[in-house]
Amino acid sequence: MLFRSDPGARVAIATLGRDDTGDNSMTFALRDYFQLVVDETEASHRASLSTRRAISAAVFLNTLPDRVFETYRNSDPRKVRDAMDLPEYRDRIEKECTDLQILHALCRFEAAAPSLVRKTIEVSDAESKKLAIGDFMISLYNGLSVYAILVRLPDGKEIRFDELIDRAVAWWKNEFAARGL
After folding, report:
1. What's the pLDDT at 49?
2. What secondary structure does DSSP assign to 9-49, as a single string?
3. How far apart are alpha carbons 114 and 108 in whole angstroms?
4. 121-163 per-position pLDDT tens digit
């Protein structure tokens, strides 16, 4: 990530990838970027009803395959499953982890893509004890139901966002360890 500030501006600009000189090298270390994905996922858990945080976590996770492919496509193609291009790489990892397929589709923001919804769901007694204290108190007064962010698939099926992204991040953690990313 490059930070630049314009002498007349009060903000620094962060960029990923191509910089002003035309250099297309990765300027943000891959492991640092993955930590950003993990941090944003954890932030989405802390703000469990924030669709903004959920979208942010999903978008960061969605661009992770791009970063991995850009880093290793020439230097060590085995790490990207010998994929010839980014769409092929994405297809290969999505076949291995369907949660990634759902999150990638969510981030396309197309008419027929999955969408995020905030909805009341019922939780079991055991699940309620794992909730943040505020959510736990609400669940007690509402018959073990709480608000949650869900991913609504085009077929109408709904999946809890927090569980979906946790499985996807766990898959990436295993991928980083197994492939030495």
Report:
1. 82
2. -SSEEEE-S--TT---S--S-HHHHHHHHHHHHHHHHHTTT
3. 9
4. 766 666 655 655 556 555 545 556 667 889 999 999 999 999 9
Average pLDDT, the chain: 80
Angle CA 142–161–131, to nearest 5: 40
Report if pTM > 0.90: no
Mean pLDDT across 159-171: 96
DSSP-H helix ranges across the chain: 30-46, 51-72, 86-96, 98-106, 125-128, 133-141, 161-179
Q: Phi and psi dihedrals of 148, rounded to 5?
A: -150, 160
Cα 170 from Cα 175, distance rounded (Å): 9
pLDDT at 9: 34
Please say if the pLDDT value at position 81 is more than 70. yes
Q: Is 54 within 8 Å of 161 (Cβ atoms)?
A: yes
- What is the Cα–Cα distance from 170 to 178, expressed in whole angstroms? 12
What is the spatial distance between Cα 123 and Cα 120, in angstroms, rounded to a whole number?
A: 10
Distance (Å, rounded) from C-alpha 102 to C-alpha 70? 22
Report the relative pairing of strands 12-15 and 2-5 from DSSP bridges. Answer: antiparallel
